[in-house]
Design goal:
Order of helices and strands: HHEHHEEH
Radius of gyration: 22 Å
Helix content: 40-55%
Number of strands: 3
Shape: elongated
Number of helices: 5
Structural class: mainly alpha
């Protein structure tokens, strides 16, 4: 089956709905967990395959540009898939100076409570 047939053929409506449902479920899970790292394309294809939806990597990349997946997937770059609504990696890790100051404050408070 060609990829355009998946979305144009009336007999493939069930497959299209199943694909959309699985991708929406994956996206919801990623967003709900607060993950800011993209999901592996291979992982998504494995989940789809386990659900009985056999899609190649190239087919998936083509489907992302069409409805209904273009409303769920923000970007496919290399092996990374980013979903719409997924937090961006802002790289706001605490700096060593900040952690030292915080640790010193905590130690001072604990010492003050002991006295």
């Amino acid at each position: 089956m060609k990829i355009r047939e998946l979305f144009e053929d009336e007999s493939s409506t069930d497959l299209s709905l199943a694909l959309s449902a699985v991708i929406n479920q994956i996206a919801s899970r990623v967003i709900d967990t607060g993950s800011n790292s993209p999901m592996s394309l291979k992982s998504i294809l494995t989940v789809l395959n386990n659900m009985g939806i056999n899609v190649s990597e190239q087919q998936f990349r083509e489907m992302v540009t069409n409805d209904p997946l273009k409303n769920v997937i923000a970007n496919v770059s290399g092996d990374d898939v980013t979903f719409i609504g997924q937090r961006k990696d802002t790289n706001q890790a605490i700096k060593p100076d900040q952690s030292t100051a915080t640790l010193e404050k905590m130690a001072k408070r604990a010492a003050d409570k002991r006295d």
